[in-house]
Write a structure and sequence with these properties.
By secondary structure, the chain is an alpha/beta fold. The protein has 2 domains: about 300 residues, Rossmann fold (3-Layer(aba) Sandwich), CATH 3.40.50.970; about 35 residues. It contains 13 helices and 7 strands. The strands form 2 sheets. A 5-stranded parallel beta sheet has the order 1-2-3-7-6, with helices on both faces. The chain has a two-stranded antiparallel sheet with strand order 4-5. The chain is globular, with a radius of gyration of 24 Å. It comes from Streptomyces shenzhenensis. GO terms for molecular function: magnesium ion binding; oxidoreductase activity, acting on the aldehyde or oxo group of donors, disulfide as acceptor. It holds the Pfam family E1_dh. Its cofactor is thiamine diphosphate.
Length: about 375
């Protein structure tokens, strides 16, 4: 006879299947995106933080324009620009501690650079020279993820493992609005909430999944509302307001670090450039649509705030732009050098122990290269 079969044994009664496990009200996002710039809350923001955000935004904008130019020069195979979304990129990188992890998507190269990765190494994957281009462990930055949302379960797994080990680590995973329609998004949020994993999901809602508008992806009141169905808080924030983003992300990262579990943050922003250099955005949106967002540009918003409060003068603006130009010139110079590649690298860093097929292919390529060299020496 088992313990549960004994008379009078304790049998916990599960709640009815329809009964929610948590009160949904505290999980609901605000009706409107949270803003700081241009409001009374801006007067309470740290001036040094605002100036730091401004300098990083100016560098980020120049980084985007330079990388886009490199695609036109044939130095990059593809570049998904984050022009217009720089506030999301910079804030995501700045709120993390050195021990935390960033899980970027393919559009988040700027966040990777702001996290401390060498700009050229961050572009190496998009150049087609290397598997990733940087050491993820050295910078606590996962590889850029081209498949939609596949980085999200990885972020949850790392965060959960860190919690089990007792490590004070938070994972911040970035994804676009298109990624919220993927199964990996559902699985990641579900596991994160059940495990109360210290992970933050940052959705950059830029209006389009390539050419598909948000209205054709979801009928939800907002993407932040999706959090409630998984049992985690949803936060809605103006994705072009760098101060608001930094405040919200810092708050939810702290919440996760203190054991409060995951949060889904939706940042409402806009992709000013095409999806990539291979996309023709005029096929699905008009110039007037884009122009309507230019007055809400993240760099312009912060510059207006700082100038209006007397925290930023013309000399400071010039200094920020000159620093950005120096960065762009160095990036341009280094990217214009031909990469030194080794064909045998095709077989490196794939498996800890190469498979028989890889060993066979490696030997075949080595023989072909040797034969080619011998033929050239004759």
């Amino acid at each position: 006879m088992t313990v549960m079969e004994q008379r009078g044994a304790y049998r916990p009664a599960p709640p009815p299947a329809w009964q929610p496990r948590t009160d949904p009200a505290p999980l609901l996002p605000d009706a409107e995106p949270y803003r700081v710039l241009g409001t009374e809350a801006a007067t309470k923001a740290d001036p040094e933080l605002l100036l730091r955000l401004y300098a990083q935004l100016v560098r980020g904008r120049r980084y985007n324009t330079q990388a886009t130019a490199l695609t036109k020069q044939g130095r990059l195979a593809v570049y998904p620009s984050s022009t217009g979304q720089e506030a999301c990129e910079i804030a995501a990188a700045l709120v993390l501690q050195d021990r935390d992890w960033l899980f970027p998507s393919y559009r988040d190269t700027l966040a990777v650079v702001a996290r401390g990765v060498d700009p050229v190494e961050a572009l190496t994957l998009l150049r087609g020279d290397w598997h990733t281009g940087y050491d993820p462990y050295a910078h606590r930055v996962a590889p850029l993820s081209t498949p939609l949302a596949t980085q999200l379960p990885h972020a949850v797994g790392l965060a959960h493992a860190a919690r089990l080990k007792g490590d004070d680590v938070v994972a911040l995973a970035m994804v676009g609005d298109g990624g919220t329609s993927e199964g990996d998004f559902h699985e990641a949020l579900n596991f994160a909430a059940v495990w109360r994993a210290p992970v933050v999901f940052l959705v950059q809602n830029n209006g389009f999944a390539i050419s598909v508008p948000l209205a054709k992806q979801t009928a939800a009141p907002s993407l932040a509302h999706k959090a409630v169905g998984y049992g985690m808080p949803g936060r809605l924030v103006d994705g072009n307001d760098a101060a608001a983003l930094h405040e919200v992300l810092a708050d939810v990262v702290r919440h996760a670090r203190e054991g409060g579990g995951p949060t889904l943050v939706e940042a409402v922003t806009y992709r000013m450039d095409a999806h990539t250099n291979a996309d023709d955005a005029t096929r699905y949106r008009t110039d007037a649509d884009v122009a309507a967002w230019r007055d809400h540009d993240p760099v312009l918003l912060l510059e207006r705030e700082l100038t209006g409060r007397g925290l930023l003068d013309e000399d400071a603006v010039t200094a920020a732009r000159e620093d950005a130009e120096t960065m762009a010139a160095e990036l341009r110079d280094r990217m214009n050098r031909d990469a030194e590649t080794d064909p045998m690298d095709l077989f490196a860093h794939v498996y800890a122990e190469p498979t028989p097929q890889l060993r066979e292919q490696r030997a075949l390529l080595r023989a072909e290269l040797a034969a080619e060299r011998e033929g050239g020496d004759r």
